[in-house]
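Shipment paperwork, digital attachment
Item: protein structure file
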Amino acid sequence: MPTQPRAQVTRESIMVAAASEFDRLGYAAVSLSLILERCGVSKGAFYFHFPSKIALAAAIMESEQALWPELTRRWDERGLDALRTLIGSTTQAVEMISGDPIVRAGVRLSTDPEVHASGLRPQYLNWESLLTVLAERARDEGLLRPGVDPVEVARVLNAVFAGNREIAAALTGYADYVARMDQAWRVLLPGIATDEWLTQWRTASAGGG
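Attachment content:
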C-alpha cells in the first residue's frame, strides 16, 4: 500500500468516491469511468492503487470491517453488562453507517450478489458473529430470558439492522436509521431480556442514564 502523503490522499479520495457510488447504485451499476469522474483522478492513478474495481470494493469492505472489533473492544472496556454493551456498540455502529460513506458502502457491498460472485466472502457474517458473542455473554450473565438462544438473537438482530438500513437508505438517506433501531430495540428487548434487567434499563433510560 502506498505510504507517501500525496499517494495516501489519492487512494482515500478514490475510496470515498467509489464508496459513495457503490452505496447509491450498487456494485454492478458503477463503472470505472464514473468513479474516475467522481474523484477526478486518471486511470493510471487508479491502477497504481487498485488493480481492479473488485479490488477497490474489497478494500472498502476491509476498511469497514476493521472498525467493528475495535468498537466492540472500546465498549467492553466500559465495564457495562453484555446487553448494555450490545445496545451501545450497535447504536454507535448505526451512527457510523449513517454518517460515513465508506462504512455505508462496505455494509452494502457485503450483501451484494455481484460482489459475492467474484469470490469475496460475505462480510456481514462477521458482524453476525460479533453479535453472537455479545448475546452469549448476556446469557452467561443471566440477562436473557430462559430458552432464548443467543445465536437466534444475533440472526434476528442482524436481519433487523439490515432491513432498517435498506428502508432508511431509500426513504431518508439514512437520516432516521438510528431512530428506527431505537424503536426496534424497544420492541425486541421484552422478548429477549429478563424482567429485572428491563426494569433497570427503562429506569435508566427515563432518567437519561
